[in-house]
Amino acid sequence: MEKNAIMTAIRALKQFSVEKNAARYIKEEFDQKYGGQWHCV
C-alpha cells in the first residue's frame, strides 16, 4: 500500500500543477482501489 501511495502521488504531481487537484486524484484512486473514505491533505 505504501508503494502504491508513492506511485500514485508521483502520477498526481506530474499530472496536476494545483495541489488540491493532485490530492483529489490521490483520494479518488485510493477510494476506488481500497474502498472506504480516504482523505488526502
TrEMBL record:
GO biological process, one term: microtubule-based process
GO cellular component term, pick one: dynein complex
Pfam families, per database record: Dynein_light
Domain of life assignment: Eukaryota
Name this polypeptide is given: Dynein light chain
